[in-house]
């Protein structure tokens, strides 16, 4: 299993009724993908920018798509200047939660019982099936594995006041910091829009 898959399974396991927003979760999934690509040496960091790594075959379909996306979007990223980590999180993360949800559902990792707000209208609530993948993700979570713990804190499924285990790898720590920053930026944007909408409603009520 990969870190994004473990994150999705863990999130559904610990928050079956109130999962995080798709935007937050998609950013965290993109960060999880990048961390796995770094560990596979399919990418490396040049400061806080993503540089190409070795051309390695990646068996996981979604992770392979992530590796391919490093050189997509109409520009060549094998040459400097490279794309910033946070820019890639926003680009790669667009709609990523739905993609992983669909993949794990088709593989039988997730069963459907009744409607969930994560998936299209008319479908069912998510129920995790008892699989080795679920057991592995749960073991990683309960052991406070640093990467999964930090990603969980970013999307609110772990109390951020709890001291997280230290991440020794500097590049991985850079990605995790970028995920936390991106999620905070997204929440700030939500709050800004909420304030603007409330002000707009007040103006209309005053007419």
Give structural notes:
The chain has eight helices and five strands. The protein has 207 residues and is mainly alpha-helical. It has one domain. The longest helix has 37 residues. The N and C termini lie far apart (57 Å). The mean pLDDT is 82.
Topology:
Blueprint: H1 3-14, H2 22-39, E1 43-46, E2 49-52, H3 61-69, E3 83-84, H4 85-93, H5 96-106, E4 110-112, E5 126-128, H6 132-142, H7 146-154, H8 170-206
Antiparallel strand pairs: 1-2, 2-3, 4-5
Helix pairs in contact: 1-2, 1-6, 1-7, 2-4, 2-7, 2-8, 4-8, 7-8
Give, in spatial order, the strands making up the sheet with the most strands.
1-2-3
Proportion of helical residues: 55-70%
Average per-residue pLDDT, rounded, comes to 82
Question: In terms of per-residue confidence, which ranges show pLDDT below 50 for 5 or more consecutive residues?
Answer: none
